[in-house]
Each structure stands twice: as structure tokens, then as C-alpha cells.
Amino acid sequence: MNKYLSIKRLTITLKELWISNRVLVFSFPVVVLLCIAIFYLWPGSIFYEKWLHPDTFSSKEAWLKALLTTHTTQRVLILFVIPIYLVICTKPTLDKLNKSERTNLTPITRLERTFGLTSFAIGFTCLAFACFILYDHVIAAWFNNLYYEEAVRYLEAHGNLYPDISDRTALYPISTNILGVAFLMIMLFLPLYFLSLVFFRKNSFILFLGLLVLIIITLVFFLRWLLVQETSSISIPIKGLFPLTLNILLVVSYWYLAMATFYHKLKEKEI
Amino acid sequence: MIEIRDLSFHYKKSAPIFDGISTSLLPGHIYGLLGLNGVGKTTFLKLICGLLFPKTGAVKTNGFTPSKREVSFLSDVYFVTDEVDLPSWTISNFLDIYAPLYSNFDSSYFDDILAAFQVDRREKIKSLSYGQRKKVNIAFALATNTRLLLMDEPTNGLDIPSKTQFRKLLARHVSPDRIIIISTHQIRDIHQLIDHLLILKDSKLVLDESLYDLGNKLKFQQGTYADALYSEIGLNGTNNIRSNIDGEASTFNIELFFNAISNHPDLLTKLANPSLQNHE
Fold first, then answer.
1. The CATH number of B2-202 is which of 3.10.290.10, 3.20.20.140, 3.90.1580.10, 3.40.50.300?
2. A102 in contact with B, Cβ within 8 Å
3. Assigned domain for A13 exists
4. CA B274, B276, B277, B278 torsion-angle sign
5. Choice among A89-98, A125-134, A243-252, B153-162 with the minimum mean pLDDT
6. Residue B279: which pLDDT band, with cuts at 50, 70 and 90?
């Protein structure tokens, strides 16, 4: 059996996480569906008015105008449920790694613990995204079925013979770009969260939130300062392989450094 | 085998817990680790299994450096802690997940112990009482068949029949290749099991001796004796510790002996005196 990484022990680490969190994992689709329902039926939203107070819209045209001009991309914020779930699922395990004699004497290497936690978190995030995307597409298809024809007729009636409906309306699912940014944000949050929870022995979650706020404030101030310092009058937009590679390298380096520190902190932990 | 050389440890520099402790603990024995509250008994066990790292000195357990926490080392060690820290799953789930990590795990033995402790395997751990959770942990610990078994207050929370069961199980568990170290204040629960005493006091291991050797030096008698090394008035009269100069066999009273050492540290000096060892 490998001294540092064995499939058997890695599977046991994943099983540990699965058994402890399966109820939570199964509850995720329900919670997301609930969040979507709350989003669309929030008092004041067009669907709330349309379905619960049909008199709000004086005519069909008024409703279609509202449908075509209201942007609903804010529903991407529902994806913030994912980091909340990740915290709820992984915090007990991270707390045990910080404090539990039994957990730290279980014959599982720190590398397997690191891989297990990371795989679980990434796996859950991917499944959660898949679930959200599925709901989003089904709801967009349903709205299309209900209102698309009417919307096109409305636009044609107003002289728009080549209807161009914004992809930010409820008739379209969230774009891949927006989903990509949300996924990247969650992935950036993950190693910092893991690291904070093993780095700080007491009040680790509060300190992690404090650290997160501090990093965000520092970044905002730094970017503002950078923009103020920007005096050049010619800007050359560079697109292509180099900036993309640079970005990927930065993210990968951050990930590697944070996870390596997490692993070494686990190894050094005294209980 | 556990080799401890010049072990020093502290949580705060100003308050050392251990200062230059050295000893060798051999397989085939049940060691009783005694000491007053806060003297560092649990810390001692944690240093042996690698939960804490020595500040100076070295600990070698079964040929491994515990602080490295290698898998081969961890799969041969089990620590029964005072606080039972088991997941909230069913006992069966707990077994399915963790038993494969111990190469010598004996599932049927685990079931036998649970049956002896009258705990149902189908129960959820979170629905069990503290004592029942402790029984599950002890059953798991014994079924792992690890060569090093550390126990911190193992009888805390056990009911009276379970304490008897525990003694029987542990007596059967000892073998020439296993080391069992039990730290406890409930010495009466296990005094028939222990064959070697370790006593911690003032950052030192002040006593590291087998009960056989101690029994050769000391005898325990009731009555009034002018030459008693230590006397204590009990419900049945005065209990005495005397020099065993005539080689008389007596039941070793660990509790009385520990009280004697706590109240009269000079007894340790007397124990080291060769005149007490004439029976050897």
C-alpha cells in the first residue's frame, strides 16, 4: 500500500464525508428550487405581479413589455448557496482535524485528507452547478413555451421584424460566462477557507470571514489606486494566449500555494 | 517497544510538563500510568502516539517516530480517549468505514465484545449514552488488535457489570507482542490487571517499576506497626506499607501505595535503598 496516497484510504475519506453529509447533499436540489421560487415570486418581481396580482398589468402588452425589459440575471446569486453548503458540509471535518484525537490517529495520511476534502468540495460544486443549470434551462424553456411566441408577435407588431430578445431576460438561461465567473469565485474561496480553518484553532470561521473581507478591501483599494495611477492615453487591448496563460498561472499558483500550506499545517498540527 | 529518551515537553515555557524523562516500555505488559490531576498523564499518552511532539528528546514507538504519523505506525496504535469522540452514524457504518484501516481488525471479536457489553450494533452512535459510546470505542479498540493500546480513564462512565467485562476482556487481550498503557484515577477498577506502575510527579517519571519488584520490596498489612513506612486509617482499621524484609507475599494495594508516594515523597528514596531489596 502506498505510504502517502492509497486509493483505498482516499475512498474511505470520501465515504466519511459522504455518510456525514448525504442528507445535506440530497437537500441541495430542494433548497435551490426553493431559492429559485423565492427569486421569481419575490414581492414586486414581474412574475409575482403577473401570477399573484394579475390586475397589475393593464394589458397583455404591458406584461410583455415588462417581461422583455426586466433583467433576471441576478438569479446567479442563488449560486452563493453552494459555498454556504460547502462550509456546512466540511466544517465538522476540518474542526475534527483541528481538535479530534481519534481523527488525527486514524490511519489516513494528511495528503489523503487534503485530496479527499478537495475532491468532495469540487465534486459537490460541480454537481450543484449541474443542478442549478438544469433548473435554469428547464425554467427558461418553460417561460419560452409560455411567452416566447407572444413576445415575438409583440415585437413584430411594434415594427421589430428581426426580434432581438436580450439574453438577460427570463426567457434565456444564465450565460456560460457568468456561470464561469461564479465557478471561479467559489474555487478561489475554497483553499482560503480550508487553510483558515486549520490555521486558526479558535473562532476559525469568524477569522476566515475577517480575512476574506480584508483581502477584498485590500484588492478594491489596490485596484482603485492602480486606476488613479493610470495616466497613459493609449491603451492596447491584448487578447490571446499570453494574458489567458498568465491568468491561469496565477490561479493555479494561488491554489497550489494555499493547498500546500493547508497540507503542511495539517502535518504539523498538535492536538 | 516504546523508547523514551530525555523527553521534555511544555505548553508554556514557564511551566514544564516533562523534564528529561527516559524509560523503555516493553511488550507483554499492562502499564498503569498514575499521577495527580494536571501532572501530564494524557500528555504523556499523546506524546507516545504522536498527537503532541516532544520539545526536546525523542520518543520511538514500535520503531517509528510518532510525530511523523506514518500510516504503518497509526494502523498499529489505538488511543481510547476519556471524551468519546465518535461520529453520529450507526455502529455498523462506523465499522464499515474504519475497520478496513486496521489490517488485524477482527469483526467477530468486535461483535462478541458488543454483545458482552449489551450494546446493539444496529444502534445509532448519537443515540447512545456516554457509557455506551465508551463501550463501542473500547470494543473497537480491542478488535483492532493493534500492538499499542493507550487508554485514558477507560472505566469512566462504565456500569458495574461492564467494568467486570472490561477487566476480563483486557486480561484476555494482553499478549507477548502488545503494550497496553492505562491512565486512570479509578485504580480499583483495574488494579488486578496492571503489572507495571508508572507514576508521574513534578515533571518527572518518579516511579517506573513492575508490581512484582515492588512486591518484593514492600508488603501491605493491616494493624499497628511501629516500623511502617506509611500508614493510613481506613474503614477496616489501619493499612500499612512495610519493608518486605522476610519475603512475605501480600496483595499489592496500588491506591495505598500511590497515596504514600503523594504524601511522603521520601518513600521513593527509601524504595531506591538496597536494604529494601533483600528479597531479590
1. 3.40.50.300
2. yes
3. yes
4. positive
5. A243-252
6. very low
Contacts of A98 in chain B (CB under 8 A): none
Predicted pLDDT of residue B280: 41
Q: Tell me: the pLDDT tens digits for A136-181?
A: 999 999 999 998 898 888 888 888 888 788 888 889 999 999 999 9
Predicted model pTM = 0.86
Which amino acid is it at A262?
F
Would you say B271 and B206 are in contact if contact means Cβ atoms under 8 Å apart? no
Q: How far apart are CA A151 and CA A255, in angstroms?
A: 46
Neighbouring C-beta atoms of residue A264, cutoff 10 Å:
13
- Cβ atoms of B155 and B167 closer than 8 Å: no
Distance CA B38, CA B46 (A): 14
Alpha carbon B121 to its chain's center: 27
3-state helix, strand, coil in chain A (%, to 5): 80, 0, 20
Cα separation, B160 vs B166, whole angstroms: 10
Residue-level pLDDT at A238: 62
Q: Say if strands B56-61 and B196-201 run parallel, antiparallel, or are unpaired.
A: unpaired
Instruction: Give the minimum alpha-carbon distance from A186 to chain B in angstroms, rounded to a whole number.
Output: 28
**Per-residue confidence (pLDDT) for residue A8, from 0 to 100:** 94
One-letter identity of residue A221 = F
A9 neighbors B101 (Cβ within 8 angstroms): yes
> Amino acid letter at B254?
I
Identity of the residue numbered B247: G
B46 vs B64: CA distance, rounded Å: 15
Q: How far is the C-alpha of A148 from the C-alpha of A23, rounded, in Å?
A: 38
Q: Is residue A187 part of a domain?
A: yes
Would you say residue A113 has pLDDT above 80? yes
User: What percent of chain A has pLDDT above 70?
Assistant: 93
Count of the separate structural domains present in chain A: 1
B-chain CB neighbours of A102 within 8 Å are 79, 81, 85-86
CB of B75 less than 8 A from some CB of A: yes
| Test mutation, A102, A109, A270, A271, chain B, max B CBs within 10 A | A102
Residue B278's pLDDT band (cuts 50, 70, 90): very low
| Minimal C-alpha gap between A46 and chain B (Å) | 46
Q: Does a structural domain hold residue A225? A: no
Q: What does the pLDDT average to over B152-162?
A: 92
C-alpha neighbours within 13 Å on the C-beta side of residue B55: 14
Q: Which of A13, A17, A103, A105 to mutate to test the interface with B (most CBs of B within 10 A)?
A: A105
In a domain, A31, yes or no: yes
Task: Print the domain residue range for A169.
Answer: 7-199+231-268
**φ, ψ dihedrals at B210, nearest 5°:** -75, 155
